[in-house]
Amino acid sequence: MLAKLKIHNFAIIDNLSLALKNGLNTLSGETGAGKSIIINAINLILGARSSAEMIRTDCNAASVEGHFLFPGNAELARLLAEQNIPFERELSIKRTIFREGRNTVHINGSPSTLQNLSRLAPYMVSVSGQHSHQDLLKPDHYLYLLDTFSGLEEDRDRFSGEFERYQQVKTRIRDCEKRIEDYQKHRELSAFQLQEIEDVDPKPREDDLLNEEKVRLQHAYDLVEIARTAYETLYERNDAVLSILSRCGKHIAKGAQLDKRLLPISDALSEIEANIEDVSFALRDFQETVVIDPKRLAAVSDRIEALNRLKRKYGGTIERVLQSREKLASRFDNLAGEKETLAKLLKQRTTLEAQLIKQAEHLSLERRAGAKGFKAAIETELRRLHMKDTRFEAIFEEDVPKSGDGKGNSLNILRPHGFDQVSFMLSTNPGEALKPISTIVSGGELSRIMLSIKTILAKNADVETIVFDEVDAGISGATAEVVGEKLSSLASYHQILCITHLPQIACQGHSHFLVKKEIANNRTRTTVTELTPEGRVSEIARLLGGRKTTLHATAHAKAMLGENASSV
Fold first, then answer.
1. Is 202 within 8 Å of 321 (Cβ atoms)?
2. Residue 267 belongs to what domain range?
3. Per DSSP, which regions of 383-453 are E strands?
4. Residue-wise pLDDT tens digits, 504-563
5. pTM over 0.85
6. I need a surface site. Which of 173, 186, 252, 256 has the fewest CB within 10 A?
7. Read out DSSP for 265-285?
Protein backbone atom coordinates (compact mmCIF):
# COMPACT_ATOMS: atom_id res chain seq x y z
CA MET A 1 0.00 0.00 0.00
CA LEU A 2 0.96 3.63 -0.46
CA ALA A 3 1.56 4.70 3.13
CA LYS A 4 2.86 8.22 2.60
CA LEU A 5 3.03 10.66 -0.29
CA LYS A 6 5.32 13.70 -0.16
CA ILE A 7 5.03 16.41 -2.81
CA HIS A 8 7.36 19.40 -3.07
CA ASN A 9 7.04 22.38 -5.47
CA PHE A 10 4.79 20.43 -7.85
CA ALA A 11 2.25 22.54 -9.77
CA ILE A 12 0.51 24.65 -7.07
CA ILE A 13 1.55 22.36 -4.21
CA ASP A 14 4.49 23.77 -2.24
CA ASN A 15 4.96 21.18 0.51
CA LEU A 16 2.57 18.34 1.18
CA SER A 17 2.89 15.19 3.24
CA LEU A 18 -0.10 12.89 2.96
CA ALA A 19 -0.42 9.86 5.27
CA LEU A 20 -2.78 7.35 3.68
CA LYS A 21 -4.57 4.42 5.28
CA ASN A 22 -5.59 0.97 4.30
CA GLY A 23 -9.10 0.62 2.94
CA LEU A 24 -11.00 3.32 1.08
CA ASN A 25 -9.38 6.78 1.10
CA THR A 26 -11.68 9.40 -0.42
CA LEU A 27 -10.55 12.85 -1.52
CA SER A 28 -13.00 15.64 -2.20
CA GLY A 29 -12.87 19.38 -2.69
CA GLU A 30 -14.00 22.20 -4.90
CA THR A 31 -13.40 21.96 -8.64
CA GLY A 32 -9.92 23.30 -9.40
CA ALA A 33 -8.67 22.79 -5.84
CA GLY A 34 -5.89 20.50 -7.09
CA LYS A 35 -7.22 16.98 -6.66
CA SER A 36 -5.93 15.85 -10.04
CA ILE A 37 -2.50 17.26 -9.19
CA ILE A 38 -2.23 14.54 -6.55
CA ILE A 39 -3.03 11.90 -9.19
CA ASN A 40 -0.41 13.42 -11.49
CA ALA A 41 2.14 13.26 -8.67
CA ILE A 42 1.38 9.57 -8.10
CA ASN A 43 1.75 8.93 -11.82
CA LEU A 44 5.12 10.65 -11.71
CA ILE A 45 6.55 8.12 -9.24
CA LEU A 46 5.15 5.37 -11.45
CA GLY A 47 7.30 6.51 -14.38
CA ALA A 48 4.92 8.84 -16.24
CA ARG A 49 6.29 11.54 -18.51
CA SER A 50 7.32 14.76 -16.86
CA SER A 51 7.46 18.35 -18.01
CA ALA A 52 9.12 21.49 -16.73
CA GLU A 53 5.63 23.01 -16.65
CA MET A 54 4.86 20.73 -13.69
CA ILE A 55 7.37 22.63 -11.54
CA ARG A 56 5.96 25.32 -9.28
CA THR A 57 6.49 28.86 -10.58
CA ASP A 58 9.83 30.42 -9.55
CA CYS A 59 11.22 27.03 -8.48
CA ASN A 60 14.06 25.14 -10.13
CA ALA A 61 12.91 21.62 -9.31
CA ALA A 62 9.96 19.57 -8.09
CA SER A 63 10.00 16.25 -6.29
CA VAL A 64 7.52 13.52 -5.42
CA GLU A 65 8.26 10.76 -2.94
CA GLY A 66 6.16 7.71 -2.18
CA HIS A 67 6.61 5.28 0.72
CA PHE A 68 5.03 1.87 0.16
CA LEU A 69 4.43 -1.12 2.38
CA PHE A 70 4.18 -4.56 0.77
CA PRO A 71 3.47 -7.53 3.06
CA GLY A 72 4.16 -9.88 0.18
CA ASN A 73 4.76 -9.31 -3.51
CA ALA A 74 7.00 -11.94 -5.08
CA GLU A 75 7.18 -10.35 -8.53
CA LEU A 76 8.08 -6.95 -7.11
CA ALA A 77 10.77 -8.57 -4.96
CA ARG A 78 12.17 -10.37 -8.02
CA LEU A 79 12.36 -7.18 -10.08
CA LEU A 80 14.06 -5.28 -7.26
CA ALA A 81 16.55 -8.11 -6.81
CA GLU A 82 17.39 -7.91 -10.53
CA GLN A 83 18.16 -4.22 -9.99
CA ASN A 84 20.27 -4.99 -6.88
CA ILE A 85 17.98 -2.85 -4.74
CA PRO A 86 17.53 -3.93 -1.11
CA PHE A 87 13.90 -4.66 -0.26
CA GLU A 88 12.23 -5.87 2.92
CA ARG A 89 8.52 -5.02 2.74
CA GLU A 90 9.19 -1.26 2.53
CA LEU A 91 9.80 0.59 -0.69
CA SER A 92 10.66 4.27 -1.11
CA ILE A 93 10.56 5.94 -4.51
CA LYS A 94 11.65 9.51 -5.08
CA ARG A 95 11.60 11.32 -8.40
CA THR A 96 12.90 14.82 -8.97
CA ILE A 97 12.34 16.85 -12.12
CA PHE A 98 14.44 19.88 -12.94
CA ARG A 99 13.63 23.01 -14.87
CA GLU A 100 16.20 22.20 -17.59
CA GLY A 101 14.45 18.88 -18.25
CA ARG A 102 16.66 16.51 -16.24
CA ASN A 103 15.11 13.75 -14.08
CA THR A 104 16.50 11.73 -11.19
CA VAL A 105 15.04 8.55 -9.74
CA HIS A 106 15.93 6.93 -6.42
CA ILE A 107 14.53 3.58 -5.29
CA ASN A 108 15.18 2.77 -1.63
CA GLY A 109 17.89 5.41 -1.72
CA SER A 110 19.70 3.89 -4.71
CA PRO A 111 19.96 5.83 -7.99
CA SER A 112 17.86 4.20 -10.70
CA THR A 113 16.22 4.89 -14.06
CA LEU A 114 12.77 5.66 -15.41
CA GLN A 115 12.89 2.36 -17.28
CA ASN A 116 13.36 0.45 -14.03
CA LEU A 117 10.62 2.51 -12.40
CA SER A 118 8.20 1.72 -15.23
CA ARG A 119 8.90 -2.00 -14.79
CA LEU A 120 7.96 -1.81 -11.09
CA ALA A 121 4.84 0.33 -11.54
CA PRO A 122 2.38 -2.40 -12.62
CA TYR A 123 3.02 -4.23 -9.35
CA MET A 124 2.55 -1.19 -7.11
CA VAL A 125 -0.36 1.03 -8.16
CA SER A 126 -3.13 0.91 -10.75
CA VAL A 127 -4.42 4.33 -11.73
CA SER A 128 -7.83 4.79 -13.33
CA GLY A 129 -7.83 8.40 -14.50
CA GLN A 130 -10.66 10.76 -15.33
CA HIS A 131 -10.85 9.44 -18.86
CA SER A 132 -10.02 5.77 -18.23
CA HIS A 133 -13.59 4.76 -18.94
CA GLN A 134 -13.04 6.08 -22.45
CA ASP A 135 -10.81 3.04 -22.99
CA LEU A 136 -14.04 1.10 -23.32
CA LEU A 137 -14.62 2.98 -26.56
CA LYS A 138 -11.31 1.67 -27.95
CA PRO A 139 -11.62 -1.88 -29.33
CA ASP A 140 -7.84 -2.30 -29.23
CA HIS A 141 -8.05 -2.17 -25.43
CA TYR A 142 -10.56 -5.02 -25.10
CA LEU A 143 -8.09 -7.82 -25.74
CA TYR A 144 -5.79 -6.43 -23.06
CA LEU A 145 -8.62 -6.45 -20.50
CA LEU A 146 -9.66 -9.99 -21.43
CA ASP A 147 -6.08 -11.27 -21.26
CA THR A 148 -5.58 -9.66 -17.87
CA PHE A 149 -8.72 -11.30 -16.51
CA SER A 150 -7.73 -14.67 -18.00
CA GLY A 151 -4.19 -14.53 -16.59
CA LEU A 152 -2.67 -14.51 -20.07
CA GLU A 153 -0.40 -11.47 -19.71
CA GLU A 154 2.82 -13.51 -19.74
CA ASP A 155 1.66 -15.65 -22.68
CA ARG A 156 0.62 -12.53 -24.61
CA ASP A 157 3.88 -10.71 -23.85
CA ARG A 158 5.90 -13.76 -24.84
CA PHE A 159 3.94 -14.00 -28.10
CA SER A 160 4.42 -10.26 -28.76
CA GLY A 161 8.17 -10.64 -28.32
CA GLU A 162 8.25 -13.56 -30.77
CA PHE A 163 6.04 -11.66 -33.19
CA GLU A 164 8.43 -8.70 -33.07
CA ARG A 165 11.31 -11.07 -33.84
CA TYR A 166 9.25 -12.49 -36.72
CA GLN A 167 8.66 -9.00 -38.13
CA GLN A 168 12.36 -8.22 -37.87
CA VAL A 169 13.24 -11.44 -39.72
CA LYS A 170 10.71 -10.58 -42.47
CA THR A 171 12.25 -7.12 -42.81
CA ARG A 172 15.73 -8.63 -43.06
CA ILE A 173 14.47 -11.05 -45.72
CA ARG A 174 13.03 -8.18 -47.78
CA ASP A 175 16.28 -6.23 -47.48
CA CYS A 176 18.34 -9.29 -48.39
CA GLU A 177 16.16 -10.07 -51.41
CA LYS A 178 16.46 -6.46 -52.56
CA ARG A 179 20.26 -6.61 -52.35
CA ILE A 180 20.30 -9.92 -54.25
CA GLU A 181 18.03 -8.41 -56.90
CA ASP A 182 20.38 -5.45 -57.26
CA TYR A 183 23.38 -7.77 -57.53
CA GLN A 184 21.60 -9.91 -60.11
CA LYS A 185 20.50 -6.87 -62.09
CA HIS A 186 24.10 -5.65 -62.46
CA ARG A 187 25.70 -9.07 -62.56
CA GLU A 188 26.26 -9.26 -66.35
CA LEU A 189 27.88 -5.83 -66.49
CA SER A 190 29.95 -6.54 -63.38
CA ALA A 191 31.14 -9.85 -64.83
CA PHE A 192 32.16 -8.16 -68.11
CA GLN A 193 34.03 -5.40 -66.26
CA LEU A 194 35.80 -7.83 -63.95
CA GLN A 195 36.85 -10.02 -66.89
CA GLU A 196 38.07 -6.96 -68.79
CA ILE A 197 40.37 -6.00 -65.92
CA GLU A 198 41.53 -9.56 -65.25
CA ASP A 199 42.36 -10.09 -68.93
CA VAL A 200 44.87 -7.23 -68.70
CA ASP A 201 45.86 -8.18 -65.13
CA PRO A 202 47.53 -4.89 -64.17
CA LYS A 203 50.20 -4.74 -61.48
CA PRO A 204 50.91 -1.92 -59.01
CA ARG A 205 53.07 0.86 -60.61
CA GLU A 206 53.31 -1.17 -63.80
CA ASP A 207 52.47 1.81 -66.01
CA ASP A 208 55.28 3.91 -64.53
CA LEU A 209 57.84 1.18 -65.08
CA LEU A 210 56.66 0.52 -68.62
CA ASN A 211 56.76 4.20 -69.57
CA GLU A 212 60.37 4.39 -68.39
CA GLU A 213 61.24 1.28 -70.42
CA LYS A 214 59.46 2.68 -73.49
CA VAL A 215 61.58 5.85 -73.38
CA ARG A 216 64.74 3.75 -73.23
CA LEU A 217 63.66 1.57 -76.12
CA GLN A 218 62.59 4.53 -78.26
CA HIS A 219 65.99 6.23 -77.80
CA ALA A 220 68.28 3.19 -77.78
CA TYR A 221 70.42 4.37 -80.79
CA ASP A 222 70.72 7.83 -79.25
CA LEU A 223 71.83 6.36 -75.95
CA VAL A 224 74.49 4.17 -77.61
CA GLU A 225 75.83 7.12 -79.64
CA ILE A 226 75.95 9.38 -76.56
CA ALA A 227 77.85 6.77 -74.56
CA ARG A 228 80.24 5.94 -77.47
CA THR A 229 81.09 9.60 -78.13
CA ALA A 230 81.73 10.27 -74.44
CA TYR A 231 83.88 7.12 -74.17
CA GLU A 232 86.02 8.05 -77.13
CA THR A 233 86.39 11.62 -75.92
CA LEU A 234 87.47 10.58 -72.47
CA TYR A 235 89.59 7.52 -73.26
CA GLU A 236 90.04 6.13 -76.74
CA ARG A 237 91.22 8.97 -79.04
CA ASN A 238 94.84 10.15 -79.22
CA ASP A 239 93.74 13.50 -77.91
CA ALA A 240 91.43 11.92 -75.29
CA VAL A 241 91.00 13.71 -72.01
CA LEU A 242 92.70 10.86 -70.16
CA SER A 243 95.79 11.07 -72.38
CA ILE A 244 96.11 14.82 -71.85
CA LEU A 245 95.72 14.41 -68.09
CA SER A 246 98.28 11.62 -68.08
CA ARG A 247 100.91 13.85 -69.80
CA CYS A 248 100.12 16.70 -67.38
CA GLY A 249 100.42 14.36 -64.45
CA LYS A 250 103.91 13.23 -65.50
CA HIS A 251 105.16 16.84 -65.76
CA ILE A 252 103.74 17.75 -62.35
CA ALA A 253 105.28 14.61 -60.82
CA LYS A 254 108.75 15.70 -62.07
CA GLY A 255 108.13 19.16 -60.59
CA ALA A 256 107.17 17.61 -57.24
CA GLN A 257 110.59 16.04 -57.10
CA LEU A 258 111.99 19.57 -57.24
CA ASP A 259 109.36 21.19 -54.97
CA LYS A 260 107.35 19.11 -52.57
CA ARG A 261 104.56 21.71 -52.60
CA LEU A 262 103.50 20.19 -55.94
CA LEU A 263 102.92 16.78 -54.38
CA PRO A 264 99.24 17.42 -53.42
CA ILE A 265 98.54 18.63 -56.93
CA SER A 266 100.21 15.57 -58.37
CA ASP A 267 98.15 13.29 -56.15
CA ALA A 268 94.90 15.08 -57.11
CA LEU A 269 95.68 14.65 -60.82
CA SER A 270 96.33 10.98 -60.28
CA GLU A 271 92.95 10.62 -58.55
CA ILE A 272 91.20 12.47 -61.42
CA GLU A 273 92.87 10.16 -63.94
CA ALA A 274 91.59 7.11 -62.02
CA ASN A 275 88.05 8.49 -61.88
CA ILE A 276 87.95 9.33 -65.58
CA GLU A 277 89.23 5.86 -66.33
CA ASP A 278 86.37 4.39 -64.21
CA VAL A 279 83.82 6.58 -65.98
CA SER A 280 85.17 5.58 -69.37
CA PHE A 281 84.89 1.87 -68.60
CA ALA A 282 81.31 2.45 -67.26
CA LEU A 283 80.36 4.17 -70.54
CA ARG A 284 81.82 1.26 -72.50
CA ASP A 285 79.80 -1.23 -70.38
CA PHE A 286 76.64 0.88 -70.65
CA GLN A 287 76.70 0.59 -74.46
CA GLU A 288 76.58 -3.17 -74.13
CA THR A 289 73.45 -3.02 -71.87
CA VAL A 290 71.36 -0.83 -74.18
CA VAL A 291 68.61 -2.96 -75.74
CA ILE A 292 67.69 -2.26 -79.32
CA ASP A 293 64.53 -4.36 -79.78
CA PRO A 294 61.69 -3.03 -81.98
CA LYS A 295 59.50 -6.02 -81.08
CA ARG A 296 59.89 -5.31 -77.35
CA LEU A 297 59.12 -1.63 -78.00
CA ALA A 298 55.92 -2.59 -79.80
CA ALA A 299 54.91 -4.96 -76.99
CA VAL A 300 55.57 -2.32 -74.33
CA SER A 301 53.57 0.25 -76.31
CA ASP A 302 50.64 -2.16 -76.65
CA ARG A 303 50.75 -2.97 -72.94
CA ILE A 304 50.79 0.72 -72.03
CA GLU A 305 47.79 1.34 -74.29
CA ALA A 306 45.88 -1.56 -72.68
CA LEU A 307 46.60 -0.13 -69.24
CA ASN A 308 45.57 3.35 -70.36
CA ARG A 309 42.23 2.00 -71.62
CA LEU A 310 41.57 0.53 -68.16
CA LYS A 311 42.63 3.76 -66.46
CA ARG A 312 40.28 5.79 -68.65
CA LYS A 313 37.35 3.53 -67.67
CA TYR A 314 38.10 2.81 -64.03
CA GLY A 315 39.45 5.91 -62.35
CA GLY A 316 42.53 7.34 -64.01
CA THR A 317 45.24 5.43 -62.14
CA ILE A 318 46.40 1.85 -61.81
CA GLU A 319 45.55 2.03 -58.09
CA ARG A 320 41.93 2.92 -58.95
CA VAL A 321 41.78 0.11 -61.50
CA LEU A 322 42.95 -2.39 -58.89
CA GLN A 323 40.37 -1.05 -56.42
CA SER A 324 37.64 -1.48 -59.04
CA ARG A 325 38.71 -5.09 -59.62
CA GLU A 326 38.54 -5.80 -55.89
CA LYS A 327 35.12 -4.15 -55.61
CA LEU A 328 33.74 -6.06 -58.61
CA ALA A 329 35.07 -9.36 -57.26
CA SER A 330 33.54 -8.65 -53.85
CA ARG A 331 30.12 -8.25 -55.47
CA PHE A 332 30.17 -11.87 -56.48
CA ASP A 333 31.42 -12.88 -53.02
CA ASN A 334 28.66 -10.74 -51.49
CA LEU A 335 26.07 -12.30 -53.75
CA ALA A 336 27.05 -15.75 -52.54
CA GLY A 337 27.02 -14.53 -48.95
CA GLU A 338 23.62 -12.88 -49.35
CA LYS A 339 22.16 -16.07 -50.81
CA GLU A 340 23.50 -18.01 -47.85
CA THR A 341 22.08 -15.44 -45.44
CA LEU A 342 18.72 -15.52 -47.22
CA ALA A 343 18.53 -19.29 -46.92
CA LYS A 344 19.14 -19.05 -43.16
CA LEU A 345 16.57 -16.27 -42.75
CA LEU A 346 13.93 -18.20 -44.68
CA LYS A 347 14.54 -21.20 -42.46
CA GLN A 348 14.30 -18.99 -39.38
CA ARG A 349 11.06 -17.47 -40.68
CA THR A 350 9.52 -20.89 -41.21
CA THR A 351 10.44 -21.93 -37.67
CA LEU A 352 9.03 -18.72 -36.19
CA GLU A 353 5.83 -19.03 -38.20
CA ALA A 354 5.22 -22.51 -36.87
CA GLN A 355 5.90 -21.36 -33.30
CA LEU A 356 3.72 -18.27 -33.64
CA ILE A 357 0.78 -20.17 -35.09
CA LYS A 358 0.96 -22.72 -32.28
CA GLN A 359 1.17 -19.97 -29.63
CA ALA A 360 -1.61 -17.95 -31.28
CA GLU A 361 -3.89 -20.99 -31.38
CA HIS A 362 -3.22 -21.56 -27.68
CA LEU A 363 -3.97 -17.90 -26.88
CA SER A 364 -7.18 -17.98 -28.90
CA LEU A 365 -8.49 -21.07 -27.15
CA GLU A 366 -7.57 -19.70 -23.71
CA ARG A 367 -9.18 -16.36 -24.50
CA ARG A 368 -12.43 -17.97 -25.57
CA ALA A 369 -12.46 -20.01 -22.40
CA GLY A 370 -11.68 -16.90 -20.34
CA ALA A 371 -14.35 -14.87 -22.12
CA LYS A 372 -17.07 -17.05 -20.59
CA GLY A 373 -15.90 -16.29 -17.07
CA PHE A 374 -15.35 -12.64 -17.99
CA LYS A 375 -18.94 -12.35 -19.22
CA ALA A 376 -20.36 -13.93 -16.07
CA ALA A 377 -18.22 -11.77 -13.76
CA ILE A 378 -19.07 -8.53 -15.61
CA GLU A 379 -22.81 -9.24 -15.58
CA THR A 380 -22.68 -10.08 -11.86
CA GLU A 381 -20.92 -6.82 -11.04
CA LEU A 382 -23.23 -4.78 -13.27
CA ARG A 383 -26.28 -6.20 -11.50
CA ARG A 384 -24.79 -4.98 -8.23
CA LEU A 385 -24.41 -1.54 -9.82
CA HIS A 386 -28.11 -1.21 -10.76
CA MET A 387 -27.69 -2.55 -14.31
CA LYS A 388 -29.58 -5.77 -13.58
CA ASP A 389 -31.00 -6.35 -17.08
CA THR A 390 -27.69 -5.84 -18.83
CA ARG A 391 -26.29 -8.57 -21.04
CA PHE A 392 -22.59 -8.57 -21.93
CA GLU A 393 -20.64 -10.57 -24.49
CA ALA A 394 -17.06 -10.62 -25.72
CA ILE A 395 -17.45 -11.46 -29.41
CA PHE A 396 -14.48 -12.75 -31.40
CA GLU A 397 -14.32 -11.65 -35.02
CA GLU A 398 -12.48 -14.74 -36.25
CA ASP A 399 -12.82 -18.43 -35.59
CA VAL A 400 -9.74 -20.11 -34.18
CA PRO A 401 -7.71 -21.14 -37.25
CA LYS A 402 -7.01 -24.87 -37.35
CA SER A 403 -3.50 -26.02 -38.17
CA GLY A 404 -4.87 -28.22 -40.93
CA ASP A 405 -6.53 -25.24 -42.64
CA GLY A 406 -3.24 -24.23 -44.18
CA LYS A 407 -0.46 -22.11 -42.74
CA GLY A 408 -0.97 -19.33 -45.28
CA ASN A 409 -4.50 -18.57 -44.08
CA SER A 410 -3.35 -18.45 -40.47
CA LEU A 411 -0.47 -16.12 -41.25
CA ASN A 412 -2.80 -13.71 -43.02
CA ILE A 413 -4.60 -12.87 -39.76
CA LEU A 414 -1.58 -13.01 -37.46
CA ARG A 415 -1.28 -9.82 -35.39
CA PRO A 416 1.05 -8.59 -32.61
CA HIS A 417 -1.16 -10.23 -29.95
CA GLY A 418 -2.28 -13.32 -31.85
CA PHE A 419 -5.13 -14.10 -34.23
CA ASP A 420 -7.88 -12.43 -32.27
CA GLN A 421 -9.88 -9.26 -32.49
CA VAL A 422 -12.61 -8.95 -29.91
CA SER A 423 -15.59 -6.64 -29.50
CA PHE A 424 -17.40 -5.89 -26.26
CA MET A 425 -21.13 -6.04 -26.92
CA LEU A 426 -23.85 -4.88 -24.56
CA SER A 427 -27.61 -4.84 -24.21
CA THR A 428 -28.85 -2.64 -21.38
CA ASN A 429 -32.57 -3.31 -21.84
CA PRO A 430 -34.58 -6.54 -22.03
CA GLY A 431 -35.37 -7.63 -25.56
CA GLU A 432 -32.72 -5.38 -27.13
CA ALA A 433 -30.02 -6.90 -29.36
CA LEU A 434 -26.38 -6.80 -28.37
CA LYS A 435 -24.58 -3.79 -29.80
CA PRO A 436 -21.03 -2.42 -29.52
CA ILE A 437 -20.49 -0.64 -26.20
CA SER A 438 -19.33 2.51 -27.96
CA THR A 439 -22.69 2.97 -29.70
CA ILE A 440 -25.17 2.59 -26.87
CA VAL A 441 -23.88 3.41 -23.40
CA SER A 442 -24.06 6.69 -21.51
CA GLY A 443 -21.22 8.22 -19.52
CA GLY A 444 -22.63 6.84 -16.29
CA GLU A 445 -22.92 3.37 -17.77
CA LEU A 446 -19.36 3.55 -19.03
CA SER A 447 -18.17 4.46 -15.53
CA ARG A 448 -20.01 1.51 -14.01
CA ILE A 449 -18.75 -0.92 -16.62
CA MET A 450 -15.18 0.25 -16.05
CA LEU A 451 -15.66 -0.07 -12.28
CA SER A 452 -16.97 -3.59 -12.80
CA ILE A 453 -13.93 -4.49 -14.88
CA LYS A 454 -11.58 -2.91 -12.34
CA THR A 455 -13.30 -4.86 -9.59
CA ILE A 456 -13.00 -8.26 -11.22
CA LEU A 457 -9.43 -7.60 -12.35
CA ALA A 458 -8.39 -6.33 -8.94
CA LYS A 459 -9.43 -9.53 -7.21
CA ASN A 460 -6.64 -11.44 -8.92
CA ALA A 461 -4.18 -8.60 -9.40
CA ASP A 462 -0.74 -8.33 -7.76
CA VAL A 463 -1.20 -4.58 -7.37
CA GLU A 464 -2.14 -3.47 -3.86
CA THR A 465 -3.21 0.14 -4.46
CA ILE A 466 -5.90 1.27 -6.91
CA VAL A 467 -6.51 4.93 -7.68
CA PHE A 468 -9.83 6.15 -9.08
CA ASP A 469 -9.97 9.70 -10.39
CA GLU A 470 -13.66 10.69 -10.57
CA VAL A 471 -15.10 7.21 -11.05
CA ASP A 472 -18.47 8.87 -10.34
CA ALA A 473 -18.65 10.60 -13.73
CA GLY A 474 -22.20 10.54 -15.09
CA ILE A 475 -23.88 8.88 -12.06
CA SER A 476 -25.94 10.12 -9.12
CA GLY A 477 -28.52 9.09 -6.56
CA ALA A 478 -28.99 5.41 -5.78
CA THR A 479 -26.46 4.38 -8.44
CA ALA A 480 -23.82 6.55 -6.78
CA GLU A 481 -24.60 4.89 -3.46
CA VAL A 482 -24.12 1.45 -4.99
CA VAL A 483 -20.84 2.55 -6.57
CA GLY A 484 -19.68 3.78 -3.18
CA GLU A 485 -20.56 0.44 -1.63
CA LYS A 486 -18.69 -1.33 -4.41
CA LEU A 487 -15.60 0.76 -3.77
CA SER A 488 -15.86 0.06 -0.05
CA SER A 489 -16.13 -3.65 -0.80
CA LEU A 490 -13.13 -3.49 -3.15
CA ALA A 491 -11.19 -1.79 -0.35
CA SER A 492 -11.46 -4.93 1.78
CA TYR A 493 -8.60 -6.47 -0.20
CA HIS A 494 -6.99 -3.40 -1.82
CA GLN A 495 -6.04 0.08 -0.73
CA ILE A 496 -8.29 2.45 -2.68
CA LEU A 497 -7.73 6.16 -3.35
CA CYS A 498 -10.81 7.76 -4.84
CA ILE A 499 -11.37 11.35 -5.93
CA THR A 500 -15.07 12.10 -5.88
CA HIS A 501 -17.67 14.85 -6.07
CA LEU A 502 -20.51 12.72 -4.74
CA PRO A 503 -21.50 12.49 -1.07
CA GLN A 504 -22.78 8.93 -1.60
CA ILE A 505 -19.20 7.84 -2.37
CA ALA A 506 -17.37 10.18 -0.01
CA CYS A 507 -19.33 8.92 3.00
CA GLN A 508 -18.16 5.34 2.30
CA GLY A 509 -14.53 6.21 2.87
CA HIS A 510 -12.63 4.75 5.77
CA SER A 511 -10.52 7.93 5.61
CA HIS A 512 -11.63 11.21 4.08
CA PHE A 513 -9.29 13.97 2.90
CA LEU A 514 -10.27 17.52 1.96
CA VAL A 515 -8.36 19.18 -0.88
CA LYS A 516 -8.40 22.98 -0.73
CA LYS A 517 -6.85 25.80 -2.70
CA GLU A 518 -5.83 28.89 -0.76
CA ILE A 519 -3.97 32.14 -1.45
CA ALA A 520 -1.34 33.48 0.93
CA ASN A 521 1.21 36.23 0.23
CA ASN A 522 -0.06 36.47 -3.33
CA ARG A 523 0.77 32.79 -3.97
CA THR A 524 -1.72 30.03 -4.61
CA ARG A 525 -1.21 26.65 -3.02
CA THR A 526 -3.09 23.41 -2.55
CA THR A 527 -3.46 21.80 0.87
CA VAL A 528 -4.80 18.38 1.86
CA THR A 529 -6.25 17.71 5.32
CA GLU A 530 -7.54 14.48 6.78
CA LEU A 531 -10.99 15.29 8.12
CA THR A 532 -12.14 14.67 11.65
CA PRO A 533 -15.62 13.17 12.17
CA GLU A 534 -17.00 16.70 12.50
CA GLY A 535 -15.10 17.84 9.44
CA ARG A 536 -16.51 14.95 7.46
CA VAL A 537 -20.04 15.98 8.36
CA SER A 538 -19.34 19.51 7.10
CA GLU A 539 -17.79 18.27 3.85
CA ILE A 540 -20.54 15.75 3.13
CA ALA A 541 -23.10 18.50 3.82
CA ARG A 542 -21.27 20.78 1.38
CA LEU A 543 -21.33 18.07 -1.27
CA LEU A 544 -25.06 17.65 -0.65
CA GLY A 545 -26.07 21.30 -0.48
CA GLY A 546 -23.62 23.36 -2.52
CA ARG A 547 -22.07 26.63 -1.37
CA LYS A 548 -24.43 27.16 1.57
CA THR A 549 -24.67 24.38 4.11
CA THR A 550 -28.18 24.05 5.48
CA LEU A 551 -29.35 22.31 8.63
CA HIS A 552 -31.14 19.82 6.45
CA ALA A 553 -27.92 19.05 4.55
CA THR A 554 -26.01 18.66 7.82
CA ALA A 555 -28.65 16.28 9.21
CA HIS A 556 -28.59 14.32 5.99
CA ALA A 557 -24.78 14.13 6.11
CA LYS A 558 -24.86 12.80 9.67
CA ALA A 559 -27.41 10.21 8.62
CA MET A 560 -25.30 9.08 5.70
CA LEU A 561 -22.20 8.82 7.84
CA GLY A 562 -24.18 7.08 10.54
CA GLU A 563 -25.03 4.33 8.11
CA ASN A 564 -21.28 3.87 7.65
CA ALA A 565 -20.32 4.09 11.30
CA SER A 566 -17.02 2.43 10.74
CA SER A 567 -15.91 5.55 8.91
CA VAL A 568 -16.27 7.91 11.89
1. yes
2. 191-330
3. 391-396, 422-427, 435-436
4. 999 999 999 999 999 988 899 999 999 999 999 999 999 998 677 888 889 999 999 987
5. no
6. 186
7. HHHHHHHHHHHHHHHHHHHHH
